[in-house]
Amino acid sequence: MPTTEHRFAAVDLGASSGRVIVGEVAPDRLTLHEAHRFPNRPTRVLGTLHWNILSLYQGVLEGLNAAAAHTTNNRLTSIGIDTWAVDYGLLDATGSLLANPVHYRDARTATTADTVWAAIPPPALYAATGLQHLPFNTIYQLVAARGTPALAAAHRLLLIPDLIAYWLTGEAGTELTNASTTQLIDPRTRSWSTQVADALGIDLSLFPPLRNPGSPAGHLLPDVLAATGLPHPTPVTAVGSHDTASAVVGVPATTPDFAYIATGTWSLAGLELDAPVLTEASRAANFTNELGVDGTVRYLRNIMGLWMLQECLRTWESTGGEHHLPTLLEAAAEATPLRSVVDAGDPAFIAPDHMPDRIADACRRTGQPVPRTPAETTRCVLDSLALAHRRAIEDAARLSGRTVRTVHIVGGGVHNTLLCQLTADACGLPVVAGPAEAAALGNVLVQARTAGAITGGLTDLRALLHSTQPLRQYEPTGDHSAWDRAAARLGDAQVTGAATGQGDEEEPCA
Questions:
Q1: Which residue of the set 162, 186, 243, 425 is catalytic?
Q2: Which of 442, 164, 166 is nearest to 292 (CA)?
């Protein structure tokens, strides 16, 4: 008798593109097919950087239409949505969007930290929420939005994946893993922190009820069915809607002593724990306790990621240079290793534009040779990322009391073989690279388990990944002490990952 296969659509929105991916799942089978990809182009209007959310939603509808065309009888078992974190849309009492959501890279939160800390000092804020200082977590955005007409008129606040789900189904909810990035969730109770909300004057009634991954999130509305060609009823299932939460589900670990690095525009490096680490040492090291699937905690540090290389490429292209990335990576592999390194968690690298110049300035400040060519700059970026990966994993193990024997790299960065090898060299540990589409796979797996297509806990889901997905292992090579000397060059200049936790692991730059 043939095994029944279920088909699930993963809506996966990243910083530079969105896609709808169809996953076919059976107890011994897990395959993905990209049905549709579309650009994500933020727009600056009157000095404010916005997400073009209606264009993204149109891309989702077109993607679901393409997904329906690739399924039997145009039928999907369910749909799940994951996106980047912290950003939101405001709705009025009729459910209409009041304004385009503001992009987390917008400068509106640049001066809000002092206001927040005056109301609730950093140690108390960390003890209540367990989140590292990220300059545009939702609390900082809401403080920056005080007094604006949109916030004054708001009846509902929906985080980006919840906003997409609301437009698809007409039902509003707040998925927990993404809610935990707002800095308004207590990671011990996995519920809202009234202490923080009251201190900052944030009205928690703006948020609809919390949903756990695996909870129902409604069925497609009639106009959505008409636009997509999907039949009634097509359910939407809450997944780990922060893309990092889904990506961590997509780590194909076979033992518990693993660390993960979800790579792409950002690198999210850390451990999966059963309980948060809320010590002062953890706060000082700028680690975050975000909530994961099945009651887990994503204990991690946010690192600038391949954004630095993406921005370098964009700058070189805008000045008339032509740099084919594979050729550039080959040249970088031949460049002098660890000649110059920078702190890949430095907020100086958050903003777009002029990235090669900012990298050069950082090298000058720390008394290191300034990269002279694109290949040398690329090698500096990749060496620096590997060094930041090492530091994050070592710190996470020390602060949590855990032992790490294997590092898993997932997300778009798995295609960058030089970065994977340098990470193995820096950590002195084997690195297992893959899958690249970890967020989509984690999204699909949570849907599949909810639908009964597969069973078991995270260990069982990861066993299916390990047996069905292509993986590549990198063993550490070279002089490990050279990495110690490179780290010593940065010394106190490091800011331990004071970047932003936006996930976006699936944005490839390789």
A1: 243
A2: 442
